[in-house]
Design brief:
The complex is a heterodimer of chains A (about 130) and B (about 290).
Chain A lengths: L4 E5 L2 H18 L3 H22 L2 E10 L2 E10 L7 H4 L13 H8 L2 E7 L3 E9 L2
Antiparallel strand pairs in A: 1-2, 2-3, 3-5, 4-5
Helix pairs in contact in A: 1-2, 2-4
Chain B lengths: L1 H10 L1 H16 L9 H20 L5 H13 L3 H22 L5 H45 L3 E4 L2 E7 L4 H18 L3 E8 L5 H16 L3 E5 L3 H10 L12 H11 L7 H17 L1
Parallel strand pairs in B: 2-3, 3-4
Antiparallel strand pairs in B: 1-2
The chains are: A alpha+beta (about 130), B alpha/beta (about 290).
Amino acid sequence: MKPQSCVNINKEWDIVGARQLGRDIAKKMGFGTVDQARIATAISELARNIYLYAEEGQICFEVIDNLPQRGMRMIAVDTGPGIKDIGQVMQDGFSTSGGLGAGLPGVKRLMDEFDLQSEASKGTRINAVKWLR
Amino acid sequence: MDQKFKRIAVENSDAIVQMWVEEINSLKDGNYTATISDELFESTNREFVNVIFTSITNQGSSKAVEDFSEKIINLGWPLSYITDGLQVFRRVTVDYILSQSSKVDSEFFSNVLESVDAWVEPLIRQLVNEYSGSWEHIVSLQRVALQELSAPLIPVMDKITIMPLIGTIDTERAKLIMENLLEGVIKHNSEVVLMDITGVPVVDTMVAHHIIQAAEAVRLIGSTCILVGIRPEIAQTIVNLGIDLGKFPTKSTLKKGFTSALEITNRKVVDLEKKAENIEKMIDSLQGE
């Protein structure tokens, strides 16, 4: 496993930075344009969640290179308020900020693996993987 | 004490300048200023060292410094030229004063350092401030320029308006898009607005949400909003995200969107030449009879 590269999320334009870094990594690994768009969108959602709800956090990218499978892992970590009801946020259409409520369930569908851990008032950690096919 | 050092420095300015120029020239090779012609480099160095000495002899007068920094900024030279130059000057001057003094103890040494620092530091501060001020000015100008570009509205023909969007959409820009869209629809009396997202790299839920809201607002004031320029990969991610864009028409390209905009406004594009040819043929056939 290669070392991580991380982006801190503090302001809205950091979302763009994270997205660009993620897209670059995906492009270098050989993901197609559709998967690149999926990865970039997923990063955008996770980064925006950090910016909107936790105010600051970090998104890290990892290249998984253990044959026969290659893939890209992204880890979004924050120390924000946490998620009270994980079942609820994974439902389509649930949003506390007047948005579309498609963010987290959308990320789950965009990526191949998705894991969410959260503890109230401690923070949230999301781990998502896209495999290279 | 300070006056004494100052006198030493000013009286021996030629020697100090000599040492300074040598050091600066050695920095030049393989450095940021490598592409600058020797002539310009020398004349600027001379001016720089003159500015330093003027500021030492009559402290407070900063007009010369201002003019000089403006010149360097206009030339586009890096800030490191100024900081390097002043650091070198500090080192050279301290060395020189120490070499001219017979008795050097630690107290004397710290006195020399203190005075020379006091000459150089205000200069560094002022020059760096002017530099960063000019950067900040450029950044703020560019921000204004970007804002003007961020949500343009083009009335292409009667009743049809196009808003081409290029680049990332953030919250501020999304607000501008909505405002310009509604204002423009009223102002140009458009029946159809084409929102082109060919140049938008990522459509996530927030961007989609803003687009939906804008389209809905356009519908409320009695016009139709057609979303065009949806690339295949964007279409797939929108479906994956589970976003419903079914409330308003969407098209893959601006061209297709424009055609359906013409249909909505009951018009179509007709090839003039063909028409003229047909008329000529008709006339010919009539003459033939």
